[in-house]
Each structure stands twice: as structure tokens, then as C-alpha cells.
Amino acid sequence: MYLLINTLASFIQIYTVLLIIRVVLTWFPTINWYNQPFTTLSQITDPYLNLFRSIIPPLGGIDFSAMLAIILLQIVGGGLQSI
Fold this sequence. Notes:
Elements: H1 2-25, H2 38-53, H3 64-81
Helix pairs in contact: 1-2, 1-3, 2-3
């Protein structure tokens, strides 16, 4: 059980880093999301981000849904590490 919780907590940490990379890369408008490795990054992170984008639409070009998604992952990951 301990191994499963640690593995899940590690996965959440890695996924959080991928989300942060995805968000930072959106600041560069010249990136072509149809080229590798950006396509893969988008395919991995967009399903999770889309859950939050349906709740919070972009407000004036700022996507607050990504912040909510990352905060939720941090809360879940922190809860798993405290077990």
C-alpha cells in the first residue's frame, strides 16, 4: 500500500511539472503545438486542464483554470504524502 501511495504522489509531482511547463509555453505565441514534443505535452495535459476550463472560462486572456488545476493537484499530492 505504501508503494502505491508513493508512486501516485510521485506521478502527481511529475504531472504538476508538466502542467507548469505547458502553461509557461503558452506565453510564447510562436510555438507550433502541432510539432513534437509540444503535441505530446498537449495530449497529456489538456484532458485534465479541460475539466477546469469548462468551469472557469478565460478572463481577459488569463487562464485561471490552470492555476486551479495545479492547486488541486498540490492539495491531493500533499495529502498523499502525509499518509
